[in-house]
Amino acid sequence: MSSPRKNRVLQLGLLLALVLIGIVNLTFSVNSQTCDIPRYLVQPIYVRSWLPSSHVVVQIDSAFTDAERDGIEAGNALWNNPLIACSGVTFNDFDSILIFPAELDDSPPPGRLVWQKDDPNNGYNGGVFVELGFAGFVESARIKIKPNLVNIAQGTYFNYLGSHEVGHTFNLNDCLSTSGCLTWTDASIMTGHADGITTPASFN
What is the DSSP letter of 48? Predict the structure, then answer.
């Protein structure tokens, strides 16, 4: 191949490479319909969250009533549904376990989430206590639910707690008007409790 012909082939190759680079680097403006959720507890967003593709064994304190335990399991399990939650984490087992008072502050083994019927002493009905591992990912967690709560809203309150409190293990913050979150009742499971929280719209 002659030298001028080689130059033309090289120039054409460079031109195509520049065009491809230009296409790849094009930016398109998009909007999110003024959606200001989710809000995160800390930055960067992956810190204080389960490692994607994790399989988490869930254990529920036998001190919960059957209805409370069923609600917690149903709410927690919604994080497994790829149609309404893109968690990338699988929660399984949901075994009932006996927890003695002396064990309430023990850290669970890695890969465990333990629900406890115990006052979180934080002024709220629930509290999340995580153990962080490599790169700040959640390694295990305890969720304390205040004893003697009434299962309000046609028995859906523990479903709500089951989803909402697990949201905090994904670094999601509460989304309340008092914290400046401009949202609507069904917008996110991280809002305050509202009736009908089992609809996909409310699990955002």
Answer: T
